[in-house]
Amino acid sequence: MNVVKRQIDLKRMFTCTTFADRVRFLIELAVTAPSTHNSQPWRFVITQESCRLWFEPKKQLKEADPSSRDLFISLGCVLENFVVAAQYYGMYKEVRLHMKENFVAEVFLYDRAAAHQEEYRSLCESILKRYNARGLFERTNIHEATLKRIEDIAQKYTEQGVRLQVVQNSTDIKNVAELTAKGIRIARSKPLFRKEFAQWFRTNLSKKQDGIPGYAVGLPLLPSFIAPFLMRYCSLAKVLVRKNTESILTAPAVCVIESDTDSPETWLQVGRLAERVMLECYAHDLATSIYVAAIEMDNMSQELAQTLELRGRPQFLFTCGVPLTNHRKFTPRLSVDLVLK
Ligand SMILES: Cc1cc2nc3c(=O)[nH]c(=O)nc-3n(C[C@H](O)[C@H](O)[C@H](O)COP(=O)(O)O)c2cc1C
């Protein structure tokens, strides 16, 4: 994989002179996390000894995510990035969950940036490499050693009530592709879903710091200008199903995260595990693509659980593999000033 990274210099941490500046830098790294429609539903408060994570209720997506599952998964992803970055700089003490009103969690930190903690270096670099690939994958299997590493990491999260299943059987992957296609057709048949999605879709020249630019789904400049209109008023199910199906069918592995419970706290842990595994994938030159249509739409999660013979409820799904095409441009992020409460 020809690796492109976000333009953030990890050495900049050592030029920060105050605790608040160091935490701001951790936030800058953390917010590169994925979120539904790139809505970035997070806010942060820096205290004298910690950083508090809040969610922004205005960013709730009533149509795409009525239960707020994906909102908390996105928050779990940003929290995991923050923790990994704090571990890399030797600043990490502990996380305490709050889950009351909009206050999600607090990460306690040491007031220092020690030398790099080597064991976290490749993970911290993965924070700068991760993107939602969406394209086709090479027909190469994932190395046994990489799979073993991913499964060992996931094992550590089982006490939080979340489990990772890595699906490699081609029949199962085909079933995942079919259920995703069904989910996309349902979503695209709903005018309110289309309206909400179109509000988050951006042209390739947009200066907005959130949402999904056309280039992120492979659109050149001119089509990116008519896409928001088409996304709103046309089903587009045929073309979206074709693109998503092609991508899923070429993936050597599908990672599904399941749980026995179904609550905001569980979803936060799902997000943490998902981000940790995705970072590990990038550390092994694999790219990842998130597809939740087979989980979010109506009662399809039961169908997915039966098809894959899961014990629990599927919560999140992404494919991984070596991407066929090189990644060029990252999606935008809100500046740190805008995500500080
Ligand atoms: C909970 C969650 C659900 C998502 N669902 C989908 C999805 O179904 N299809 C898709 O193409 N991308 C999905 N995404 C990816 C986001 O669109 C993507 O993370 C966001 O646009 C930012 O882009 P980036 O990941 O390349 O940085 C999802 C992300 C999260 C966190």
Automatic annotation (TrEMBL):
Q: Which InterPro entries match?
A: Nitroreductase-like (IPR000415), Nitroreductase/BluB (IPR050627)
Please give one Gene Ontology molecular function term for this protein.
oxidoreductase activity
Q: Which residues cross the membrane?
A: none
SUPFAM superfamilies given for it? Answer: FMN-dependent nitroreductase-like
Where does the source fall among the domains of life?
Bacteria
Matching entries from NCBIfam families are given as: Rv3131_FMN_oxido (NF047509)
What is the name listed in the Swiss-Prot or TrEMBL entry for this protein?
Answer: Uncharacterized protein
Q: Which organism is it from?
A: Candidatus Magasanikbacteria bacterium RIFCSPHIGHO2_02_FULL_47_14
